[in-house]
């Protein structure tokens, strides 16, 4: 039997390490756990703690290939973060000049949700608890 306890981490490859680091640490508030520069790969790896439960691994590599995202390319669709108040979260992001889509209602759960993007265009969903 295949038994999974939880998602351990989400790995993201960015095109500009400093820009993405600022986005995930300073704007979204994720706590850096460990940062390493791997000289043999000319690559940074930054482990970020999300709400003391989950981790994001932020990687940089020289000249990463661009991944198609829109319209609905095959592969990872998006990552989603649960928030308590979506209006406050959207307002915070917009005050930091982040474009956020209109808040919508999930027709199945009747919960509010919206999307914005990281510096590389990775779709990020906000989903109200």
Describe this structure in words.
The chain folds into 2 domains: 1-64, 2,3-Dihydroxybiphenyl 1,2-Dioxygenase, domain 1; 77-129, 2,3-Dihydroxybiphenyl 1,2-Dioxygenase, domain 1 (Roll), CATH 3.10.180. With 129 residues, it is α/β, with parallel strands linked by helices. The chain has helices spanning 17-27, 86-95; strands at residues 9-14, 31-38, 43-50, 54-60, 79-83, 104-105, 112-117, 123-128. The model has no long low-confidence stretch (mean pLDDT 90). InterPro entries: Fosfomycin_Res_Enzymes (IPR051332), Glyas_Bleomycin-R_OHBP_Dase (IPR029068), Glyas_Fos-R_dOase_dom (IPR004360), VOC_core (IPR037523), YwkD-like_dom (IPR037478).
Tell me the CATH topology of the largest domain.
Answer: 2,3-Dihydroxybiphenyl 1,2-Dioxygenase, domain 1
Indicate the low-confidence ranges by residue numbers.
none
Count, helices: 2
What is the distance, rounded to the nearest whole angstrom, between the alpha carbons of the first and last residues? 31 Å
What is the gist of this entry?
The chain is an alpha/beta fold and 129 residues long.
Q: What topology does this entry show?
A:
Layout: E1 9-14, H1 17-27, E2 31-38, E3 43-50, E4 54-60, E5 79-83, H2 86-95, E6 104-105, E7 112-117, E8 123-128
Parallel strand pairs: 1-4, 5-8
Antiparallel strand pairs: 2-3, 3-4, 6-7, 7-8
């Amino acid at each position: 039997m295949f038994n999974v306890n939880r998602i351990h981490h989400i790995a993201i490859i960015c095109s500009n390490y400093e820009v993405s680091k600022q986005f995930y640490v300073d704007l979204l508030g994720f706590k850096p756990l460990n940062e390493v520069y791997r000289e043999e790969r000319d690559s940074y790896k930054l482990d970020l703690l999300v709400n003391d439960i989950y981790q994001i691994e932020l990687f940089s590599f020289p000249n990463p290939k661009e991944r198609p995202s829109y319209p609905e390319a095959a592969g990872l669709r998006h990552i989603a973060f649960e928030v308590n108040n979506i209006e406050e979260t959207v307002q915070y992001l917009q005050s930091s000049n982040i474009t956020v889509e209109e808040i919508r209602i999930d027709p199945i759960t009747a919960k509010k949700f919206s999307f914005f993007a990281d510096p590389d265009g990775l779709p990020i969903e906000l989903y109200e608890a």
